[in-house]
Design the sequence.
């Protein structure tokens, strides 16, 4: 059926067809309907009330007084209460502290009102055991949303606009939102209310040019229609095509993520070589999916955040990037880490501290045990926190410190000294961890880079008479 033919159908039949195609509720479920008192939500409640038996659902209305419009807001609540009573629909009404919430979060008044409203809807649905909430967004709301996203630079995902069904993360639960009126215009909901003598409330703040959405509705859209009288159809077509393309990319992104990434505790670990080999569009999908797995929502992740990570992919190892939600993107030699940056395993050493030889020494974050034997004790192959030395070559005046500018030593197996900084780079020690690597030194040279190699000049040989063993244990 063509779009023109659909518009000739009775509104209730159109909404029923839209619901069955795009957002069917579960049979015998309770559907919460958000009702502000305006034409869109009043139209929605009235139509759903006539369809509830056909859909096999129960309805529960919910109204939040944002306490932003004084007596008008109180009158809205009273109107909704009377409407729900006349339809025989149970109703939950509450007041929201929007301005207080705005001050706490330091966000715009519009954003604060939206977050407080959806929290209220999520709590109402949870208390009723309802899985979904219906809201009265229309085709006009969808157009305005697309333009808002375009103006704010939300990227390709923003161009798909509002979806018939979507998730809104709220508190400890995921709220499912359905939008049965996306196929209707705002003018059509107003006509419906007039035809059924519903007398909805009119919000005077919708005429203010302060909110961006209002400026788009009252100023920008009329101008765009001057350039293209069919701009609404063009934008909706763009949204539909974008949604189709994104659905394909998201499915491919999941497949790619499973091949190159893994989640360990609160960190996503990405294979560097395989991520870099992906096309740019697929890299973005993998990054978005990684963020979604960590924080459960991309609500605070903007297109610019993804592009910042994209621009950092080829930066040297050791670089990091801060992202919303307290997340950090860290570049290592063979992988990327995305998550809350863990603290260093041990703190850096603030001063050079002497070792007790033989004996035990307590250092910040470490316990060091020194023993002297006549033979080399057995060592575990993978124990890189223990090492043996020729005591005659090291002496017993050893200390532990952090690395210093200009440090050099001769790594085991090499025949000439090497800069310690270059050794750490070649050993692929992340820059953020290098300061925390303990260095054992004698008065004349570095003896051991703990966790790495000893100096070749102090190794145990066939001529060694006394063996010094040092063991570092995290404390």
Sequence:
């Amino acid at each position: 059926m063509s779009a023109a033919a659909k518009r000739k159908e009775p509104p209730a039949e159109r909404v029923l067809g839209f619901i069955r195609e795009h957002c069917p509720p579960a049979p015998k479920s309770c559907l919460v309907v958000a009702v502000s008192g305006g034409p869109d939500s009043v139209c929605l409640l009235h139509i759903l009330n006539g369809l509830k038996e056909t859909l096999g659902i129960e309805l529960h209305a919910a109204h939040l007084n944002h306490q932003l419009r004084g007596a008008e807001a109180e009158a809205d609540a009273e109107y909704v209460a009377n409407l729900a009573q006349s339809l025989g629909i149970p109703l939950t009404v509450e007041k929201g502290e929007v301005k207080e919430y705005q001050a706490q979060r330091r966000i715009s008044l519009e954003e604060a009102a939206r977050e407080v409203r959806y929290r209220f809807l999520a709590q109402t649905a949870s208390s009723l055991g309802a899985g979904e909430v219906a809201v009265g967004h229309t085709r006009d709301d969808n157009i305005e949303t697309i333009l808002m996203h375009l103006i704010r630079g939300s990227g390709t995902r923003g161009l798909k606009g509002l979806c018939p069904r979507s998730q809104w993360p709220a508190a400890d639960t995921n709220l499912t939102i359905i939008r049965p009126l996306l196929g209707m215009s705002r003018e059509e909901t107003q006509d419906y209310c007039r035809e059924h003598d519903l007398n909805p409330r009119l919000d005077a703040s919708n005429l203010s040019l302060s909110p961006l959405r209002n400026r788009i509705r009252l100023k920008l859209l009329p101008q765009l229609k001057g350039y293209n009288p069919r701009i609404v159809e063009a934008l909706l077509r763009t949204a539909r095509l974008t949604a189709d393309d994104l659905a394909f990319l998201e499915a491919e992104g999941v497949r790619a993520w499973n091949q190159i990434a893994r989640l360990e505790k609160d960190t996503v670990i990405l294979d560097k070589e395989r991520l870099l080999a992906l096309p740019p569009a697929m890299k973005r999908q993998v990054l978005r999916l990684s963020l979604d797995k960590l924080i459960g929502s991309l609500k605070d992740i903007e297109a610019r955040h993804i592009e910042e990570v994209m621009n950092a992919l080829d930066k040297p190892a050791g670089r990091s990037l801060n992202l919303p939600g307290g997340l950090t993107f860290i570049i290592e030699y063979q992988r990327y880490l995305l998550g809350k940056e863990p603290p260093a395993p041990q703190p850096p050493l603030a001063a050079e501290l002497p070792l007790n030889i033989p004996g035990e020494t307590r250092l910040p974050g470490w316990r060091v045990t020194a023993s002297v034997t006549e033979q080399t004790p057995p060592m575990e192959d993978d124990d890189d926190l223990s090492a043996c030395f020729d005591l005659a070559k090291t002496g017993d005046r050893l200390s532990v410190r952090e690395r210093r500018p200009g440090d050099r030593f001769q790594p085991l197996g090499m025949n000439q000294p090497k800069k310690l900084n270059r050794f750490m780079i070649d050993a692929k020690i992340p820059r953020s961890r290098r300061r925390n690597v303990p260095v054992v030194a004698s008065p004349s040279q570095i003896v051991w880079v703990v966790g790495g190699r000893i100096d070749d000049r102090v190794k145990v040989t066939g001529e060694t008479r006394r063996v010094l063993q040092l063991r570092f244990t995290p404390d």
About this structure: The mean pLDDT is 89. The chain is about 40% helix and 20% strand. The longest helix spans residues 231-260.
